[in-house]
Design a protein that fits this description.
This protein is of the alpha/beta class and 117 residues long. Helices cover 44% and strands 32% of the residues.
């Protein structure tokens, strides 16, 4: 499956729906560019819907961490939504759950921004 990302806005939150694989090379570069463009457009609240991401390698994990760091540097927030079982396992094993706000419901993720404001 080819890597794709589409962005939609709900109030002041950018929700990015990704599908495919986030791996070293074209897909990780595309991921990085898309996040940078969203931040450059002024979005400070971003949800990454990863329900259709079927594989992620260490480069992809690095891009998730970079996206989180970039948003924190501009007083923004990043939330991960609908992680596949495989991705949840990777986040658990690497203990990255300590830096990511992981949600399983889009409406709850949207509300959590308001709660943290």
């Amino acid at each position: 499956m080819r890597f794709q990302g589409t962005c939609r806005e709900i109030d002041d939150v950018a929700v990015v729906d990704f599908s495919g694989q986030i791996t070293l090379g074209e897909s990780s570069a595309k991921f990085r560019t898309m996040i940078r463009e969203i931040v450059d457009m002024g979005h400070r609240k971003i949800i990454l819907n990863l329900s259709d991401v079927d594989y992620i390698d260490s480069a992809g994990i690095g891009e998730l961490v970079n996206a989180s760091t970039s948003l924190r540097n501009v007083q923004g927030e990043l939330k991960l939504l609908n992680l596949s079982r495989r991705l949840r396992d990777i986040v658990q094993i690497t203990r990255l759950y300590t830096i990511f706000d992981i949600q399983t419901d889009e409406q709850a993720a949207l509300r959590s921004f308001k709660a943290s404001s």
